[in-house]
Amino acid sequence: MSNPFFKNYGPFKLSDIIDLDINYLPSLIDLTNFKQLLYDVKNLNDASSKDITFFHSIKYKDLALKTKAYACITKKEFFDYLPEDCIKIPSNNVLLLTAMITARFYPDSINDDNNHDLSNIEEKFQDTISGKNTFVGRNVVIGVNTKIEDNVHILDGAVVGKKGFGFIPKDLRNFRYPHVGYVHIKKNSEIGCGSTIDRGSLSVTVIGENTYLDNQVHIAHNVKIGNNCIIAGQVGIAGSSTLGNNVMIGGQAGISGHLKIGNNVQIGGGSGVVKDISDNSKVMGYPARDFRKFLRENKSK
Question: Does CATH number 3.40.190.10 belong to domain 12-105?
Fold first, then answer.
């Protein structure tokens, strides 16, 4: 992901960005690599041979195996999942070290002082990338880190592109995770009144083509929603989850983070989704389960 919205203050030598106040394991690092210049911090999928990345959960082992990153912050037990030529940087707190390094590259991403409350048509897309025939209602806030395609409607009171809810506890304080990503709303979509779409941390938050969000929907950082989806009011989708195409979600349902929801999935209102859902499934309840099973269980009560 190239970043059109935040200034990158790199490159940095590996030695400069690893020399931080953090508990990592220096005895396991080949110090001859410390003079290498790194140009960006990116996720496993987007990182190039000039970048540093991170690998904190075994759930991403398939991406780790294919990463092109020069170096990767990870746990010692995950070393074997990374390519041989990738420099492994072990850490006891992968996300905190990644956050601190990201803050070196993108210090301007910590605060949202550059966002503006849009009040008239001339100002609406002054610092955003916008398509044609876009409608913005009253009291809408759009961050400068937002890309909007053609024929998008953003209704009253929506907030798009603010930093997400990301921080790592350290020494009785919370270290805020820098959000250097952005929001990409694709064509023919609608964002309902009072909805919030957080910008990505090291990725992009995506709303697919012809996807409609009802009022008071929250889309957290790094979420990627496919095309032709319909999401009813008060739904919350936690960070880094991915939804396929033609997904329908009933009101007040909750989707946990880092999940994969397949194509053509239907999720009943009030459900709690805590694991991946395969294509063409219809689920309901908490935890969400097959719709017919849910009906049988509740019929017998």
Answer: no
